[in-house]
Write a structure and sequence with these properties.
alpha+beta, Jelly Rolls, six-stranded antiparallel beta sheet, four-stranded antiparallel beta sheet, 10 strands, 33% strand, globular
Length: 166
């Protein structure tokens, strides 16, 4: 799968990326960034490179230059807010109605993560517990365990994920 992604022959789902990030101990953003900069040379890689150049000395990065990735199965959209130079990984996510994205416990073994809901409603299954978060709510993920991000409503859920390596 990694080879197909690197060659631009496959677009993995968010669930597959979660498993790969756990196995390689890379955040999803690092994994997507590596794939975009890989030998495939697709437009996503070019966009990511231009976005990095635009903020090489700090400053403004325009919306149009912000790298994004869409899960082909769920429509889940990730937009990378921070650059590789920033000490935290900041990602905006739009989770469409009815979407569910599971991640294995290993995805969280090497990171600290905070989820902040901007709009809509996020159903976050954290091991055996389920939490329904609304606009303005935050959730700081604890010990690594399987998690699922879901949207059980009829409207998009938009949230920010902040990740720091531990």
């Amino acid at each position: 799968m990694i080879s197909k992604v690197e060659r631009g022959e496959s677009s993995p789902t968010a669930a597959v990326l979660g498993k790969l990030s756990a196995a390689l101990q890379l955040t999803m953003s690092e994994l997507l960034s590596a794939a975009a900069a890989g030998p495939a040379g697709d437009a996503g890689g070019d966009t990511a490179a231009r976005a990095g150049e635009a903020t090489a000395a700090g400053g403004v990065r325009r919306f149009a230059g912000t790298p994004q990735w869409r899960d082909p199965d769920t429509g889940y959209l990730r937009r990378q807010i921070s650059t590789a130079r920033f000490p935290a990984d900041v990602t905006e996510v739009i989770l469409p109605p009815g979407a569910r994205v599971p991640y294995p416990a290993g995805s969280y073994a090497f990171i600290a993560q905070l989820v902040w809901v901007l709009s809509g409603e996020l159903t976050l299954t954290d091991g055996p517990a389920t939490h329904v978060l609304g606009a303005g709510d935050t959730f700081e993920l604890g010990v690594p365990q399987p998690r699922e991000f879901g949207n059980q409503t009829g409207a998009d859920c938009r949230y920010v994920v902040v990740v720091c390596r531990m």
